[in-house]
Structures are given as C-alpha cells and as structure tokens.
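Sample A.
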Amino acid sequence: MYGMLLESVQHFVQLEYGELVWKQALHTTGCKHTVFNTYQQYPDSLIPDLAAALSAITGRSIDEFMVFFGRCFVRFFSNFGYDELIKATGRYFCDFLHSVDNIHLQMRFTYRKMKSPSMQLIEVDENGAVLVYRSTRSGFSKYLRGQLMEIAKQLYNMDVTIKVLESQNDVPGGTAGPISIQGGLKTVIVKYRLDFDNREYMQRRVHITAHPSQLQLEPVSSSLLLELFPFALILNEQMRITAAGEKLIESWMLNNPSRSPMELMGAKVTDHFKLRRPTGITFTWENMKRLQTVNFDIQLLKGAAVNGTAEASGTGGDLKPTLADSEDPTKLMSIARRGSQGLRSILLKGEMRYIKDINSLVFLCSPLINNLEELREVGLYLNDLNTHGLSREMVFSGFSHNSRLDLMCEREEKRAEELETSLALADSWKRQGDELLYSMIPRSIAERLREGQNPLETCHSFEEVTVLFAEIQESLMSDDSIKYAMTTVNTLNAAFSAFDELIQSPMAYKVETVGKVYMAVSGAPDANPCHVQHTADLAIGMLQSIHDLNLPGVGVKIGFHTGPIVAGIVGLKVPRYCLFGDTVNTASRMESSSDTNKIQVSGFTANKLRKYGYALSFRGKVSVKGKGEMETFWLEAGPSGSQKSASLKK
C-alpha cells in the first residue's frame, strides 16, 4: 500500500489519542518508520497490525479501528484535492458508487503500483443500494465501511447504514486472501447493503421518461453506428459477436495475421476477448446488463482459438451483423503485413449498453493508450482512433507530459529520502537529548514536564524513603598537586561508574555526586515499599565494587538513614532533582561519622533491616549535629551473605 494511507492513520491517531499512544502502537507492531512517504510503498499488513496494537492499548475492538482508519483516510485526502474529484463524479451518492472503479483507474496514473479493489452496484432502490466488493486482500472490508460512511457524511451530507449480506474468504485481521487449491489467492467477496435516502436519484436517473422528440428519431443503421465507434462490439444474448467495428477487426487481424476475419463473427466473446476490469466478474449476459454504468477494460487475445461457429443469432431491427467493410482484399493484405511484427495486445475501455429494440449489448469503447510509444506497440496510428472524444488528445498529452511527470516523481522521491534521513537524524538527536535529560532528572518527572505540567507541581512529599551517602577515601597523597588531582579524578570516575552499574530503577535512584560524595535514594521518585532492603543491598554492593577495583589506598565510607523527605526539581539552567528534610541530614551524618570500608546505619533503619535477616552489630552512641547522641549500627552482610550484593549486579 502507498504511504498516504498510513499518513492519514498517523495524523488522526496522534490527534485523537496522543503521541504516546501512537509510539506505543509503532513499538508493538515493530514498525521502524517514524514518518511515511506519500508515494512510497509499505507492507499491506501494517494497517491491520496497527489496528490490533491500538485495540490492545485502548480496549476498543480491531473492527472499530479499521472503520476509524477508513474515516481518517477520507478526511485526510482532501489535502490532495481528491474530495473535489469525488464530487465531480455526480451530484448523488449513487453516482459516486457507480464511479468508484473509474476513480481507482484514474488514480493508477499517479500511483502506478496501486492494487485497488473492485466495487459494483448490483441493486438500486429508493432506500439505498447493494454493493459488491472484491479484493485479493482480506481484512479491509471494515476499512471500506469507514470510507463509505465518511464520504456520504462529509461530501453528500447524508447518513449511511451499512451491513454485510454475504462474505467470502474475508479473514479478519489478515492481509492476503486464502490460497486456492489450484494456486494463487482466492478473491475476497463481500456484499453490502447500504441504507440511505435515494429517492431523488431514483426519480431523476432511473424512473426518467424519454422526451417525445426522442421517440420520433429514425432508426440508426449498423454501418453508421460502427463508423462512429470503430472499436465497438455488438453481442447477442448468447454472448456471441454479431458485429464489430472496422478498426477492431483490423486490430484482431494484426494479432491473428494468418486467419480470416469471418472467424470473429458468431464466435463467443470470451474466445477472443478477456475481461480485465472489473475484476471478479464473469462475462455473462446478466452481469453486463446489470453493470451498464461501469467502465469495462477488455483485452483482445492474441492467437485465440475459436470455439464458436460462424453463425450468429439474428439481432432484428435495423442493426445487422457486419464486418464494417473489412472484407476488402487489398486492405486485408495490408493489415496482414502490419501484423507480421510482434505487437502488444490492445486494451479497450468503455461501457456496455443494452439496446432493447434489438435485444443486444453494444460495447462502446476506445483503445486505452497513454502515449505515442504505446500507440506503436499495439500497431495503431492516430487516424485509427475515434474522431470524437479525446483519444487522440490524450496520446499527445501523455507524450508531452510523461517525461516531465517522471522527472517530478524522481525529484519527489529524492526529497522524500532526504526528509526521511533528516527525520532519522532528528530522532537520534532527540534520543540523545532525552538520555541527557534523564541523567539530570527522573524519567517519570521529565515526561510530566514534557506534557506541560508546571515544574512547581513536581514537588512531592514522601512518608518514608531511605537516603544513602558514600564518600571515597584516599590514603595516598602526592607532592604534585596536579598529579594528585588527575589521580583523584580517575579514581572517582572508576568508583562512581561502578556504583552507577548497581543503580536499577525503580529500586534506587542516583541523586547526585558532589566532590567525593555519591548520593542515592530508594523510595523516590518512584514509590518502593522495599526501599530499606534495596538500599542495604546497594551499600553492600558498593563495598564489593571498591574491593573488586583493587585501587591502592582507596576505600569508601557509607551511611544511610530512613525517614520522610520532600523532593522536587530545582533550577532552570541545569535542573536537578533534589531531596530536602531532616532524613537527608541524618543520612549524611551516618556517612561522615562512619569508618572506611564500613556501612553505618541509624537505629531506626537497623530495626527494619533485622526483620529481613540482615546481619548488624551495635556500634554504640554517636554524636550527631542537631540530634545529640544516636545509637548506630554496622551493617555486616545481607540475609544470605555476599550473595545479596551479587544479585544487585545482575
């Protein structure tokens, strides 16, 4: 499918559900595209996959999202002027329904690889119509429902109720029809009943009566009709060819140079022609009569075997079977010489019209040719084309505009590639910026600020957290102050990097480093009921990390305390997540009064750790500024010795 369908989905999902939901849907489907190019092709499965992902995220059904996507596409394509194209098909909704296949055919000039479905009206009444949908892709029948309802509402100001009457091979959520036993895909066929007010259309288009002046017209002879339409076919009720235009017979002879044109008369139309569009329709009398407003594409077969006879059923009236003067021997020899070249089969486009007076179908058509190159490929000349209509003008127009169109498409594709590269680079920069931001403030708070929350609202109080301080100790000194400073920087970098590896959110959060002091907290900004255990495990892990680094003369003093705090974002230039309260001061005193390679905790924290099996020993009473004397304890090991610190490294 082309990117315009996905562009519409992205735009309206972001508009109605938000950027975060859209990113979650892309992540769920595994889609790596952050932007879609209008003229680029993408997997057909992407839209059903996005519907399934959004269904899982929001709780709405997949079918609801497929209908929603169909509506989104109609709202979106007005940016390209396609709403005006639909309005131009006719003043009634039924006019549009009759013209859907024709619109798709015209769109293929812009979207060359478009695989459009086929749709035909088979019944029309005052209360609505019956529409048959055919496609090689399953799962998109709900998408079509959304499109039809939105077109009716937006462009024709009417409400349409749609229900499925019959359905074949339409697998929900799939993108390819079931495989047939003979090979290839089975066609998905869905018959819809569309209920809407169709009384005005029926009155003006179906129940209209002929003007008296038309009833006085003289009968039209077959030679005149086939002269006006030199590529026309006349078919009887048995779908046998009773007459053909001169240029059509010449084209047949170009593809069958060794055969007589008399073989064409009386033969079944399917022996010499193949119905290309609409797809899924059999070449029968009933179908052709029912689809008189639909444009047909019929291909002339090369070297077809004739199964019919040379006898044609009489047509009656003034129209008679004819070869339209192609029996001229000189002309036949000339055509045979032209047919000696390898030519491409001609494709005819037109409408089937039923003539009641002679009980026959007339295929009024013209060759489908876009430029001079195609004209040569089918062995025709400009003078062979219809004198009326725009066939000749279209060939000239296609010749003059084709090269410019190709150039424009190439430029558009190049710009799209440059845009995609720029967006990928911008996305990379955004990720780097996010990583830098998350290193300064917690992710959860950063996301709230990004959504527009006031920074003052990020300040929260926490009833109980555990705050830890760790200070690196160096016993080796140097006379060279610069050399000592460099050694200190390297030591701190090694130690603090090892501590960073132990920090796992939401078990613990690194608050900051000031000089040789490392500060962390558990229980904020994300609530954590196990904050005491996690802080103890972190402290034990820090001791083990310093031991494993084996840095000469380097140790660490650690202390932590449990209690209430207030936390929030402070600063604008370099914002920081800061902790405030007596708990922070007490935890700092536990570290400053600790010994090297020891972990000191307060009595309140020690009582909590004993409940979980941690090994502690009583240190005694320590004088704490602002607190007086406090009982403190040494944390010796976790519930299972050093295994607890090892688990923290995983």
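Sample B, a different protein:
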Amino acid sequence: MAVKTPPLILKLFLTIILVSLFYFLGSYSSSSNSTTTTPLHDHLQNPPSLNCNSTTHVSISPPLDYEPHHSLSLPPQPPQKLLLFELCPKNFTNYMPCHDPSREINFTRNRFFYRERHCPGAHQRLKCLLPKPAGYKKPFSWPQSRDYAWFNNVPFKKLTVYKKSQNWVRLQGNRLVFPGGGTSFPMGVKGYVDVIRRIVPFKSGTIRNVLDVGCGVASFGASLLDYDILTMSIAPRDIHEAQVQFALERGLPAMLGILSTYRLPYPSRSFDMVHCSRCLVPWTHYDRVLRPGGYWVLSGPPISWRTSYKGWKREAKDLEKEQIILEDVAKRLCWKKIAERDPIAVWRKPTNHKHCIRKLKVLKSSRFCSTSDSDAAWYTKMDPCITPLPEVQDIHNISGGSLEKWPKRLKKAPPRITSGTMEGITVKSFNEDDRLWKERVSYYAAFSKHPVWVMNVVPFDAKPNTLAVLYERGLIGTFMDWCEAFSTYPRTYDLIHAHGVFSMYMDKCDIVDILVEIYRILRPEGAVIVRDHVDIILKVKGITDRMRWNSKILHTEKGPFHPEKILMVDNSVAAS
C-alpha cells in the first residue's frame, strides 16, 4: 500500500490535549472504546519543554475510499448541499460557556461561588463557531512565546496598566512582552525562584508536579521549566482580565480555577509542591492535593510582615494576628514550618499521619474527613477537614508509597498500581499499555523528537479512573465531563487527540456540542485526531465537514480490516 504524508501534521504542535480519555491504560481492554490519557508523554524525552523549531512528520495510510465499487449503473443523484455551521457574533470571540460573566450575577458572592463553574443547560448551548479576533496571527514559536505574544490575539490592556509596576506584561507596539515580573517578584521571577530553591530541592528530581494558585500570567511556572518541573497554573476569570488567557497564549499549562465551594478537579496527592503568591484564597484547603512530604510555599501578607507592612499599607498588629492564625492552622494540619525567608515561608506536609492522629486527639480542634473517596473532585464540595493519608505500618513509611525521582517515575509503574489499589490494572497491563502507545504515537508522528506538554483529560466517572496514576508518573491533567465546556479560553490547544470519547458520550449528550467545544478550544490552524469505531468516525466526519474542516479517514496501525479508524482533521482552512 502506498504511504502518504498528510500536510496538516507537517508542523509542531505546541500544546496538546487528550480529550476523552476514558482509560489511561487503553491496551488492557480489547473493546473499541477503550481510551488513554498519556500516549504522547510516554514517548517524550523532555515533556515540559516546548519546541517549535523543527518539523513533525507522519507516515500513515492514505485516506480511505468509502464509495461503492460494483458494476451496476445507477442514475446520478443530485448533489446534497451541506448545512454549514454559522459563525457566532463577534462579541463571542472570547466566550467561555462555564465562566460567562453574564451568568455570574445569578449566583451568590459568598465564598466567591459566582466564580465557580456555572455551565449553560443543553438547550442553551451555542451551535455556532467562535470567530477569531480581528487581526489574529499565528502565535510565536516556543521558546519565543514565553516572552512574547501578539496583542491582537489577546487584545486586553488592563493588565498592562493595572500591573505595570509589577512587570506582569507590557504592550510594545503590536506585541505583548512578558518581562517575568509578578506580585511578589516585580523585579523578576529568577531571584524569587532562587530563594525558594535554596529551601525546596528543585534539582533533585523529587519535585516534578507543582500547582501555582493565583498564577497571574504564569511567569512562575515558566521559570520552573528550567528545572524540568511541570506547573499547573490556575486562576479565576476575575478583575485581572484574561490572566490565564495570557498564560495559555505563552504556551504554558494553565486552567481557570478557584478554591471556593468545590474541590479543585485533581486527585488527592497530585502535587509535590503548591505555591501561592498573594493569592487571597483559603490556602488550608490544599492539604488534599499536596503529596505526603510535599511543600507549601507562601508569599505575600502576612509573611515578612515586620519589614513589609508599610509597603502593603497595612497595620502591623493586624498582620501579626493573621500570622498567628496562619501558624495555628498549619499546626492543626500537622504541617511543619521549615523556613521563613523574605519574602517566602515554606511548610512541609508529613509523609504519613501516624503522629498527626495522636496530635489531633489532643488538640480536638481538627478532624479527618470521613469521605471514602479522597480522589473525587468533580463538583465535590470541600469540607473543613484533613484528607486522611493511606495507612502505613511504620512511622518511617511514606503514605501511598514512595515515588521515583523524575524522569524515572515516568516509565515505572506507580505506587497506585504496584500496591493493587487500582482495580483491574496490573504492572503487566501497565507495561503493555506503555508499549502500545509508543507504537501508536510513532504511527501518528515523531513526537519523541519534539518536547511538548500534554493536558490529559479523564472523564470524572471513568472506571477505573486513572488521573491519579498520571500524576504519579509526573504528568498533569484534569477531571472533565465532555457534556459541559472545558475550563479554558478559546484557542488554547494546537492538537486535540480523542480516543473513544465519542463512543463514550454518544448516549449521554449531543456530540455536536462536543465538537463545537473542540472547535472553540482549538487554535486556528490546529489539528484533531479522533480514534474510534468506524461508525462513530463517519458520524463525526459528517459534522466536521459542516464546520468547514478538512478531514480524512485513515486506517489505524491495526490494518484495514479492523473497525477502529482514525479521523485526521485539519483546521488550517477553517472559517475565519
């Protein structure tokens, strides 16, 4: 069979989202709708780094011919006119269905609940395609995008004025420039990170996954890439106007998120470090997502209040009271303060709860959560309690098991699998899945030569739910329900990969809504790879044709007689 290289993939995809992703270990199920959440990272040498200087190549089968081949002559059929999707009005260019400010007025401001996800019902969802901003240009290639973005792509000036003294972002001609400043590091993030790394072992390989809360334009997360550390940066859509959108335009992992009423959409024990720079949120709720032995880094009021209260224009006695409360809460969480150096303070979570159990019996002011599923996080309400760590036999053991240092942890079966707590997944099936996705990714493209970061998206109700396994491997991702919109701005991702997602959601919601959402979050000139049963693929193609996308149906590596097929979509000629 002749091989053909489709032109749509002849470019490097900066950021990739794996949507569906019903299973992380797709190979242990022989069904056609098994899915995966980590195919690309399995084949990467340096996952957090982004590189757009080379060309990505694909060598796969030619488009399939679904026309009948028989000798009977039939009368010609009149051509059918496609009912194309219309473009949304221009004022929907930056529309986010679940973070729509026009809907926020319907919800209480108590605990910032109005800034949580509030999605429209099925009958209220848009059936039109979001237009690009006027003058939109292809984003800068990495690593240039870390420092520059086109203003027309994110045409918001408020941050350039409101945060001018803190050097978040500047407007120079038609470019936005990111000098690396932040609320706690107006003179640049490098010196700020240098202070932290003298306390937290960035270069040891023990710190891989970091959560940055109230991230600004993600300059902190961008700086940690130099240490091979992958940072999930989150912030709400708030008065700072599009701070997360700036981060995404820079090519950095970021999501809309807030600690208000619900848990963050990540499993328990996901992050080696959590950072908060004047993020003004109830920071004590991070105990659940912080790993045993993980670090909590805090800067801003009341830290260093003795030398900073005048600059903050605050009363020293008020700040001192806040510090006392802060220290007391950390004590009741069983966290140990290991350092306070201007401008930061660092606490460390215990590696297990042996001592904490005894301490809480004495204090009688804190309690362990009674929930049976500490990983549950999709619209799961937060409680003022301590998430219990897995039990250990010895005081020196690490709850949940010890993780390998990065990058060894990427390839080795993580503790949740080796301990047998992930029902249905064994070390053998893990290794088989690792081999399978190496084969599949090499079939798609030579991604191993081009470092990218991947947002792994796992349906919240997937069984087994493997997002926690992903984090133990040093990857990042989020829970999701694809019957709703994603917590991100339009034009976020360069490539979207969907394995089995449409089969999974076919009877749950309208797949048209899912494809319209994919259109919203895909960058112009981006691409989509859909892997599913041939019947589903044909239905999806019928919809993407109406979206003005070029698409081709291809065989998988399983050959022409297997019902699983690939739909390769090129968005480069989509309507503007």
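Observation for Sample B: DSSP finds 15 helices and 17 strands in the chain.
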